[in-house]
Amino acid sequence: MIEIKAGDTDKIKVQNKKDGVYLNDKLFDGEVIKIDDSSFKVFKSNKIFRVDVVERVGKEMKLKVNDHLIEVSITDHIDQILDKLGMNIAASAAVKDVKAPMPGSILNIIVAQGDEVKEGDQLLVLEAMKMENVIKSPGEGKVAKVHIAEKENVEKNQVLISFE
């Protein structure tokens, strides 16, 4: 079981069982079709939703749902147990590299070699799928190297920034 939280909304409990997917203990009466590793179509109540994973850093994701950006966070069973035990305040994981979540073009580089960054700090702006996507730091660290330049085209999973 996982829990998904989007913005200030309540958490949604998601369970995958033999007879289907349950959302908050109710059987989901729609259909989900996987297009590729980061794209899905959801059919529900005679409506079609296209869902694309734009960016994923740890357990945080940025989704594009029919041209609307939504930021979500996911907690799994282990996270929930740690939370119940009062151990949910974990130290930030050491960051090694930030990679391109999708192919695109670098519009703006916000950090430089030697800069200290915290989790969530803006690193660069990547234009992909005709949208500007701000790439943020997944943790604390010092920028060791910026591997790209502005206006450069990048491929999915290409290393953009390395940390010490």
UniProtKB/TrEMBL annotation:
InterPro entries associated with the record: Biotin_BS (IPR001882), Biotin_Carboxyl_Carrier/Decarb (IPR050709), Biotin_lipoyl (IPR000089), Single_hybrid_motif (IPR011053)
CDD domains assigned: biotinyl_domain (cd06850)
UniProt KW keywords: Biotin
Magnesium found in the keyword field: no
One Pfam family linked to the record: Biotin_lipoyl
Domain Lipoyl-binding intervals: 95-164
Domain of life from the UniProt record: Bacteria
Protein name in UniProt: Biotin carboxyl carrier protein
Organism in which the protein naturally occurs: Ekhidna lutea
Organism ancestry: Bacteria, Pseudomonadati, Bacteroidota, Cytophagia, Cytophagales
